[in-house]
Amino acid sequence: MFPDTTSLFCDTHLLKAYQKDLWKHEMFRKTGLSAPIEAANGLDSGVYVENYCPHLDGRAGDELHHRHLATTRATRCELMGSFSAAGTLTVLTNDVVPAPKICTDEVGPEGRRQ
Question: Phi/psi at 21 (nearest 5 deg)?
Fold first, then answer.
């Protein structure tokens, strides 16, 4: 069973603290889904989303790259709460790595090498 109050930490910094009902409300608002949980056009039971790539209007999708959660291989993220029973927690992430520069000789607006 998912905790009533959950906190998300990355490297000991509190990112979010949600009560379960508020988190569900935010997911409904950000996805536009309006049907009851487990119904068509509704949220899935037991799925909680924390989205770091929303569109300009705050809704999910259209990955605006400036909003990604910056991490390193050493980043430690923790989900804390009082879980009442053992279960399985699945975390889905999108690993984004900047592309390397292809050409080291950059050309400025005047056509000169920088």
Answer: -65, -40
Is the pTM for the entire model greater than 0.85? no
> How many helices (H) and strands (E) would you count in the chain?
1, 3
Look up residue 3 and give its two tokens. Answer: 């905790």
pLDDT tens-digit readout, 4-49? 899 999 998 999 998 988 888 888 888 888 888 888 888 888 888 8
- The owner of tokens 């009082």 is 82
Q: Which of the 8 DSSP states describes residue 67? A: G
How would you class 35 by CB atoms within 10 Å of its CB: exposed for 0-12, middle for 13-18, buried for 19 or more?
A: exposed
Contact between 85 and 20 (Cβ < 8 Å): no
